[in-house]
Design brief:
Length: 113
């Protein structure tokens, strides 16, 4: 089981093997943008773990952004026990691509399930 506190010197929740302050935190703070689709997926997962709800919403596709409920996302984020992220594969989504697909599994427990 993985637990992440406020310490930025710990491993990033996205499991990139980097420290949070060198990996997803600059994206969450708006200091950088994700360069690849996988980077974006990892940063979104880390945002759920770190309860960075504004980042989660701002990185939703513009067509669906208005349909998400920030309070619902925040409750899910806070009440889940985030246990890891597996990247299964990617299609396109590299630095020069307009689009990309990331197949992933986000492991978490909520209400005992």
């Amino acid at each position: 089981m993985i637990h992440f506190l406020g310490d930025c010197s710990v491993e990033c929740p996205c499991l990139s093997q980097k420290k949070y302050d060198e990996c997803c935190e600059p994206l969450h703070k708006g200091e950088k943008v994700a360069k690849t689709a996988e980077d974006l997926m990892r940063s979104r997962y880390a945002a759920f773990v770190k309860n960075e709800i504004e980042y989660v919403i701002s990185t939703h596709h513009p067509e669906t952004r208005g349909s998400v409920d920030p309070k619902e996302i925040e409750e899910w984020s806070k009440n889940s026990d985030w246990q890891g992220l597996e990247i299964l594969g990617t299609q396109n989504g590299e630095t020069n691509d307009e689009e990309g697909v990331v197949d992933f599994v986000a492991h978490y427990e909520l209400d005992g399930e």
